[in-house]
Amino acid sequence: MKETFLVKHAVGGRAFIDTGKQPVPYAWQQEGDRWTFTVKVEPSAVTELLKWKDELNVFVFQEFVDAPTRKLWFYVVDDAVKYDEVKQELTIVAISNITYIPDQFSVR
Fold it and tell me: pLDDT by residue for the chain (108 residues), tens digit each?
């Protein structure tokens, strides 16, 4: 499976992080009803992102060889974006998500 991780300003806004265009180390895990994302990024790469930290969405696109692409859209909690300059680690917490497969949608 190939996975792409994106952090965007709102739904249709610009992308601050897009591992499909510029790979960065990241990890994510579910903890009860929350998802925590950790991303290794340099301070200069998060300056603009942090200005919009209360208006972010996280997306994970999972591409499979034998199945359609699955898209996961995570809604970020207010005041849940933190940056540790010493570790150069961005942490984002999301409280809900929507999973969908674009191939299963049609316009009639």
Answer: 999 999 999 866 899 999 999 999 999 999 999 999 999 999 999 999 999 998 999 999 999 999 999 999 999 988 899 999 999 999 999 999 999 888 776 555
Q: What is the SS3 string spanning 47-94?
A: HHHHHCHHHEEEEEEEECCCCCCEEEEEEEEEEEEEEECCCCEEEEEE
Cα 19 from Cα 90, distance rounded (Å):
14
Measure the CA–CA gap between 94 and 35, rounded to whole angstroms. 5
The two three-digit tokens of residue 104, written as one number = 């299963």
Q: Parse the chain into domains and list their residue ranges.
A: 2-104
Query: Hey, which CATH number is domain 2-104, 2.40.30, 3.80.30, 3.90.1200, 3.30.750?
Result: 2.40.30
69 touches 62 (CB < 8 A): yes
